[in-house]
Amino acid sequence: MNGRSSSTKRNGGSSRVKSRPLRIAIMGAAAVGKTCIVNRFMNDTFNEKHKATVEDFHQKQYKISKNNVQLMEIVDTTGSYQFPAMMRVSMTISHAFILVFSLDDSKSFEEVDRLRQEILEERGDKPTYIVVVANKSDVPEREREVCPITAEIVATVDWECDDFILTSAKDDINITTLFSEITKEHYLRENAQCTDSPATVAPGERRKSVPLTFINYTSSNLRKSKANTSCTIS
Ligand SMILES: Nc1nc2c(ncn2[C@@H]2O[C@H](COP(=O)(O)OP(=O)(O)O)[C@@H](O)[C@H]2O)c(=O)[nH]1
Ligand SMILES: [Mg+2]
């Protein structure tokens, strides 16, 4: 996610829109909850029914600091192998990738590894930010097929992904946190060389340093912590 915005424009009031949108692709096996995660983030809604997605685009503006607004473009991809060309395009144009698996589906965790490898091959040397998401954290422990603690170690240590987060689209756990973390990282990378950046801080402190307020988004049940990481699988 390197490169800098080449220009800015005014957005209604006094906020400036950065010209280069942050493109996020959400990927993973079918029925892991990709669309529900996006819908929870965009509209604060949840649908109990699964309807196969081909490819959906969403846009959202968010405030990254007092005077700066950035455009976020989210591609909600298909979980099937039917559209490889579309998947490759999403991999090429996106800056950040949310790879979702479901805690009650161990095969979906394997699919994350496959996708991760494909993304890295497709992108070559281009900067690539990958977050692994363990969704459906609300399902009872006895129904889990993947231990979240083990999954986090595999994802962040073995696979060297940038982040791991436990979510529930159903209960609205960590959905806003997921997108705000990606946004903060993007903002910091884009402004790494910028002397007038408000985010010039020591690396260890950087996650706390960027004020971030989503426009038009209110969640009555926002939980910031990485919820319930207990694991009984031996
Ligand atoms: N229990 C639970 N079910 C979820 C969650 N997220 C999605 N689902 C359900 O999983 C199914 C598939 O969701 P969907 O978002 O369509 O999956 P996608 O194919 O990955 O886009 C639907 O029946 C959703 O209601 C969650 O966090 N918890
Ligand atoms: Mg879908």
TrEMBL record:
List, alphabetically, the GO terms of the cellular component aspect: plasma membrane
InterPro entries recorded: P-loop_NTPase (IPR027417), Small_GTP-bd (IPR005225), Small_GTPase (IPR001806), Small_GTPase_RasD (IPR052236)
Which domain of life does the protein's organism represent?
A: Eukaryota
The entry lists its GO molecular-function terms as:
GTP binding; GTPase activity
The record's annotation in NCBIfam families points to: small_GTP (TIGR00231)
Family per record: Belongs to the small GTPase superfamily. RasD family.
Q: What is this protein called?
A: Uncharacterized protein
* Organism whose genome encodes this protein: Owenia fusiformis (Polychaete worm)
